[in-house]
Amino acid sequence: MTATVRPGLADEDLARLRARVTGPVLDPSTPTYDEVRRVWNGAVDKHPAVIVRCAEAPDVVEAIRFARRTGLPVAVRGGGHSIPGFSAIDGGLLIDLQPMKTIDVDPDQRLVTVGAGVVWAELDRATQEHGLAVTGGEVSDTGIAGLTLGGGFGWLKRTCGLACDNLLAAEVVTADGRVVGASDTENPDLLWALRGGGGNFGIVTRFTYRLHPVGPILYGGALVHPAQRTADALRFLREHASRVPDETSLMAALVVAPPAPEFPAALHGHPVVVLGAAYHGGLAEGEHALGFLREFAPPAVDLLGPIPYVALQQMVDAFTPRGLHYYVKSEWLADLPDGVVDALVDHHLARTSPLHQILLHQMGGAVSRVAPEKTAFTYRDAAFVVTVAGCWQPGDARGPHVEWARSAWRACLPGSAGGAYINHLDADEGANRIRAAYGAATYDRLIAVKAVWDPDNVFCGNHNIPPGHSGTRQR
Ligand SMILES: Cc1cc2nc3c(=O)[nH]c(=O)nc-3n(C[C@H](O)[C@H](O)[C@H](O)COP(=O)(O)OP(=O)(O)OC[C@H]3O[C@@H](n4cnc5c(N)ncnc54)[C@H](O)[C@@H]3O)c2cc1C
Q: What residues does the FAD-binding PCMH-type domain cover (predicted)?
């Protein structure tokens, strides 16, 4: 097997790494290299010099030491769903945590400790065996790691808070290769930064979450309407979002109906507006609480009813398949002015790809009640978050799709609360948008924590928070 995979990378360095880690170490000559290097976003096509598939924390320690010894830049992968492709790297070291799949549920204490390679489908299945869950993302093959570190919203957010609000402790490999704990009593500054500050501060190998009683059957699902009702549906959502109890979580999706059996043939390939909802509570209460949704207009498709929580968590998986090309913009919204509604309708109808999605999620409830100083997540008072997901087939010209997404996002700015969701920020947005995603006060606190835990900016393959003061060195 070839060992020199990058000029300057000595054969003995690679041999030493292979001898010291329990998981496989891949280079471009390894048969599985091409499959492993790929990520969810097919537009990202990067070739790491070395991939370390870590099975446990000591493997991560060895990987970090290797990176520091050889000078290779580092990328970190949990579930591989980074939209800008941060869990891929050209010519560097990819520290792949996907083999770390342990899930230890403590139903009595309502806690779960999870390996960094677990995805939401796996965690939901394990916790639901005990009738428990923690707020997770709405697409089940997304990683728990990246989602939690950036905040993490899902159907349970209005009763249970964000994923990061439920992160009680973490095991972290630091930039200098130590394994440390982070909790309210051990390195609390690190825990604070991990609750929303992204992958800037260390590599988390285990996450411990607080669990909540959930389901296992909830009342929820979706009502689908033809596109000509889009403006009215968004105004209807806006009107009810400020009134519904915390147990109710609402969203709208502007998509094109796929040729799926749930949709009547007449809708296949046509733009539709989907009103999505879930009620975290009893079935009878849920049916009563969500009844108002059917008063909007007779839906073309009615998928609202009792649904297992694990199925709710997989309801939209088919809309975001791996390997398509994606470009995403987002913004926290203080409100949803009529002008924004009209502009979203225009973009929905003037789409450059049938695969594009515009998603509007209601926020509030428990998210808004967490004290700002408890976490590095900022936009707790936002009423909504809008996500414009440009999506197209490999081979299509990128330009028009990216411009469509940018234009739809710009149209939302009159309702902006001040910045984007960091996990839905794409690679080209720049330092000012990263700063705005945190707000000045949180950002300044994050760069101070970064200076303590990663003064050399080893973890810079992300929406980077440089160590020290604003504007200091950035690799
Ligand atoms: C289809 C899809 C649906 C989504 N739905 C939601 C949703 O409902 N709610 C929501 O809040 N977000 C959602 N997101 C955004 C999602 O939170 C981010 O894309 C997140 O980064 C995915 O995490 P991951 O572990 O899969 O990604 P990865 O690509 O593995 O990781 C992303 C980055 O996070 C950092 N990172 C990952 N693991 C670690 C670790 N263990 N230690 C330190 N740093 C680490 C690294 O910087 C890494 O590059 C969605 C994204 C996609 C693609």
A: 44-214
Does residue 63 or residue 4 have the better pLDDT?
63
Q: Whose CA is nearest to atom 35 of ligand 1?
A: 199
Q: Which tokens in the block code for residue 162?
A: 């964000």
- CA–centroid distance, 263 to ligand 1, in Å, is 30
Q: What is the pLDDT of residue 468?
A: 84
* 78 CB near ligand 1 (under 6 Å): yes
Domain ranges of the chain: 11-96, 103-213, 217-424
Q: Is 200 in the pocket of ligand 1 (CB under 6 A)?
A: no
CATH number of this structure's domain 103-213: 3.30.465.10
Domain 11-96, CATH among 3.30.43.10, 1.20.58.1000, 3.30.420.40, 3.40.710.10 = 3.30.43.10
Is the CB–ligand 1 distance for residue 77 below 6 Å?
yes
Q: 416: Cβ below 6 Å to ligand 1?
A: no
Q: Considering only CA atoms, which residue is closest to atom 23 of ligand 1?
A: 146
How far is it, in rounded angstroms, from Cα 388 to Cα 424? 9
pLDDT grade for 7, boundaries at 50, 70 and 90? low
Domain 217-424 sits in CATH at 3.40.462.20
CA–CA distance from 286 to each of 94, 127, 162 (Å)? 45, 22, 21
Percent with pLDDT over 90 in the chain = 95
103-213 and 11-96 share a CATH fold: no
CA angle 181, 186, 190 (to 5 degrees): 70
Q: Using alpha carbons only, what angle is made at residue 407 by residues 403 and 411, rounded to the nearest 5 degrees?
A: 170
